[in-house]
Design a protein that fits this description.
Rossmann fold; six-stranded mixed β-sheet; alpha/beta; 19% strand; 14 helices; Archaeosine Trna-guanine Transglycosylase, Chain: A, domain 4; 440 residues
Length: 440
């Protein structure tokens, strides 16, 4: 049966191509959605860009017919715009002064008066609750969502004969059919007869594994405290892995490990010209203009977690330079002055080409899949991208653990040999941090 999908504004702002995502069904945009898009079109951020793209697409569709009566879509369905002003005043009993209510009035009218099989699509939980209370079928926008409970972990175990483990330890490499599922996956070989007899391998491609490299046991004076951190360092230091996704709760070491690998790869191995670190500015309305001062002064406030990690990493170098009274802050300032370390707001990354840089995007769970695609597509030749974040701590009101760009990238790229992923599970920041992550 053909369905009628009524879209909320936030769906279009989340994915500008959403109107083309419902196959041969009918799509209805309430007039209130068009009015809200008009308010966003001037914004200089992802929401503004999506609003402008949707408006341009609607204008092109208008040339194919009348939007009030419906115009054909590429997938075989139709799109029409319906005003709630033409509806009876008692439609759903909702106050028409609210844009959300005007959108719901349209959905309710189509369901109750015209008998359409209506599905209300919204990223707003409150709007879905109101729609459900009206007897409507209310759903989230499911495209670009993954099952977070089944998220690729980057690590698996395999029971094998003990002699296979002995062969692997002796030769440092092993080639057997059935070893590993995805490239750059980590594989724990376990003795069938003695579970304590194990060996950890790094899958170059399914059927071929090698030992983890000894030089990655200590990276910029950072030693891994658990096997997940050890695996993360292997990915972070592998120049052939051009994009790494690290998922883990607070205190698991995601940002610290990424910065340590960046410093080691850039300053000691000279693989990259500079390090670029950025974070999405969600709580400040995606605009650093609310803070006083120049761009660099504003970023100091927002990048403080990065400064904290860098201070920790550079402290040993400062101790070695006591005679010259060099501090970790001095070293950090020199790296920034020499343009070796760049701290940048994501606002300024769009449209750039970034060659030979070690790029770290922290708190990537607050980005949409489209924003992640936009950022990663900036990578030039010789650049490595690292995306870190905690899907349990999302500040973006329209994203969750299953729909954010970080987990989406980890799942969708798992079959690519240039991608590596690890889910870090143990908090190593402190005993208190571990208890908080687990119980609060």
């Amino acid at each position: 049966m053909k369905k009628t999908f009524v879209l909320d504004t936030n769906v279009l702002l989340h994915n500008a191509e959403s109107i083309e995502s419902f196959e041969d069904n009918d799509v209805v945009l309430p007039m209130a959605v068009i009015e809200e898009l008009d308010k966003f079109k001037g914004h200089n951020d992802e929401l503004g860009r999506n609003a402008r793209q949707v408006i341009r697409r609607l204008d092109s569709l208008r040339k194919a017919g009348n939007l009030r009566d419906g115009v054909p879509l590429q997938e075989g369905g139709t799109l029409r715009i319906l005003s709630s002003k033409s509806l009876p005043d008692d439609a759903a009993g909702l106050d028409a002064s609210s844009p959300d209510n005007r959108i719901l009035r349209v959905a309710y009218y189509l369901h109750a008066r015209e008998g359409d099989h209506v599905v209300f699509i919204s990223k707003d939980i409150n709007a879905r609750l109101k729609a459900d209370a009206l007897g409507l079928d209310a759903q989230d926008f499911e495209k670009q969502k993954i099952n977070f409970d089944e998220l690729y972990s980057g690590f698996s175990e395999l029971d094998v004969p003990g002699e296979m483990i002995a062969e692997f330890r002796k030769n440092k490499v092993l080639q057997k059919e059935g070893l590993g599922t995805f490239p750059r996956e980590f594989l724990m070989l376990k003795d069938q007869d003695n579970p304590k007899h194990t060996a950890l391998g790094y899958v170059l491609e399914p059927g071929s594994i090698r030992h983890l490299l000894s030089q990655n046991e200590n990276v910029w004076n950072v030693q891994p405290r658990n096997k997940e951190q050890r695996m993360a360092l292997e990915l972070l230091m592998d120049a052939d892995v051009q994009i790494v996704t690290l998922v883990g709760q607070a205190g698991t070491g995601k940002t610290l490990l990424a910065l340590a690998a960046a410093l080691h790869s850039t300053l000691r191995y000279r693989r990259y010209d500079r390090i670029l670190v950025s974070r999405p500015i969600i709580p400040l309305g995606k605009d650093i203009g609310y803070l006083p001062g120049a761009k660099e002064e504003k970023l100091v406030h927002w990048m403080q977690p990065i400064f904290d990690n860098l201070t920790y990493l550079l402290r040993d170098g400062a101790r070695d330079s006591k005679k010259s009274r060099t501090t970790a802050q001095d070293q950090m300032d020199r790296l920034i002055k020499d343009n070796t370390l760049i701290l940048e707001a994501l606002t300024y990354i769009r449209g750039r080409s970034i060659p030979r840089q070690y790029v770290i995007i922290d708190e990537a769970q607050n980005l949409t899949p489209h924003e992640i695609k936009t950022i990663v597509s900036r990578a030039g030749e010789g650049t490595k991208m690292v995306l870190t974040g905690d899907p349990y701590q999302i500040d973006n009101p329209y994203l969750d653990a299953s729909s954010n760009g970080l987990t989406f990238a980890a799942e969708r790229l798992k079959e690519q040999s240039l991608h590596g992923h690890i889910t870090l599970r143990e908090s190593e920041r402190s005993a208190l941090a571990a208890v908080a992550a687990q119980h609060l």
